[in-house]
């Protein structure tokens, strides 16, 4: 996509959002020029699904943006993720959290994380089921170098955005329930849900972080 179109898309989206909602530009498979245009137009957070690609981009952009990991993190990539990212949005097991915690401890870094919820209860999707969250929160609250700050969910990417509403609503209910538990070290402040197709519905259902790819950068090839 040309940089002018990207710039206009970012401006339009930022203008339309309530003040409490922040945007993650989902940058998988995008070029340096495309990402640079988004940052110039006001994007403050870049989301990436791939550790290796993000590492390359970070050497170009550094602290011009914050970097969120939004892909499926394998434990053998936890070391690099600990170095590169400002937040990991996709913690989906105690094992992964422990691996990341260990790597962050070695760096004397405290990593904010979100727990990925499989709100559609689909076997093919990653994330924990809502009813598994309570136990996971208790397990994670003892880890000194990660801080649970909220939840993330995918929901369906295509189709009628209204079809995503029940997924978002279920995730918001889990978010509120966990907030009330007052688990030590768990601070529920970020609810990451909604993509290009569904972010308006997600915001209506309580999202304060949305992850936008194609609406900024165009459809992926
Ligand atoms: C690609 C991606 C997005 C953005 O999807 P679009 O439909 O292109 O806006 C959001 N979240 C995650 C985890 C992604 O991988």
> Could you state the CATH homologous superfamily?
Alanine racemase
Q: In angstroms, what is the radius of gyration?
A: 17 Å
Q: How many separate domains make up the residues?
A: 1
Reported by name, the CATH topology is TIM Barrel
Terminal residue distance: 11 Å
Order of helices and strands: HEHEHEHEHEHEHEHEH
Helix vs. strand class:
alpha/beta
Shape: globular
β-strand percent reads: 15-25%
Small molecules in complex: pyridoxal-5'-phosphate
**Helix residue percentage:** 40-55%
* CATH C-level: Alpha Beta
Q: What is the mean pLDDT? A: 96
Count of strand segments:
8
- Provide the low-confidence segments as ranges: none
Descriptive report:
The chain is built from 9 helices and 8 strands. By secondary structure, it is of the alpha/beta class. It has one domain (3-217): Alpha-Beta Barrel (TIM Barrel). It has an 8-stranded parallel beta sheet with strand order 7-6-5-4-3-2-1-8. Strand 4, helix 5 and strand 5 form a beta-alpha-beta unit. The mean pLDDT is 96. The structure holds pyridoxal-5'-phosphate (PLP). The site of pyridoxal-5'-phosphate has 13 residues, from strand 8 and helix 9.
What are the main properties of this structure?
single chain, 221 residues, alpha/beta, TIM Barrel, eight-stranded parallel sheet, 41% helix, 20% strand, globular, binds pyridoxal-5'-phosphate
Ordered list of secondary-structure elements with their pairings:
Blueprint (H helix, E strand, L loop, with lengths): L2 H14 L5 E5 L5 H9 L4 E4 L2 H11 L4 E4 L8 H7 L2 E5 L2 H13 L4 E7 L15 H9 L4 E8 L11 H17 L4 E7 L6 H6 L4 E4 L1 H4 L4
The protein binds pyridoxal-5'-phosphate.
């Amino acid at each position: 996509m040309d940089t002018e179109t990207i710039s206009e898309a970012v401006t339009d989206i930022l203008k339309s959002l309530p003040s409490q909602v922040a945007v993650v530009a989902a940058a998988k498979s995008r070029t340096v020029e495309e990402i640079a245009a988004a940052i110039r137009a006001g994007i403050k957070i870049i989301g990436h699904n791939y550790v290796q690609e993000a590492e390359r981009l970070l050497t170009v952009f550094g602290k011009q943006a914050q970097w969120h990991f939004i892909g499926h993190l394998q434990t053998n990539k936890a070391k690099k993720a600990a170095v590169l990212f400002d937040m990991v949005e996709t913690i989906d097991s105690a094992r992964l959290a422990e691996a990341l915690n260990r790597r962050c401890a070695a760096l004397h870094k405290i990593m904010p994380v979100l727990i990925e919820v499989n709100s559609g209860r689909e076997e093919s999707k990653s994330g924990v089921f809502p009813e598994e969250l309570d136990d996971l929160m208790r397990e994670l609250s003892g880890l000194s170098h990660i801080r649970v700050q909220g939840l993330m969910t995918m929901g369906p990417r295509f189709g009628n955005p209204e079809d995503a509403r029940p997924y978002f609503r279920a995730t918001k209910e889990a978010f509120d329930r966990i907030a009330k538990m007052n688990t030590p070290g768990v601070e529920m402040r970020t609810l990451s849900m909604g993509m290009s197709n569904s972010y308006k519905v997600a915001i209506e259902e309580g999202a304060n972080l949305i992850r936008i790819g194609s609406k900024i950068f165009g459809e992926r090839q």
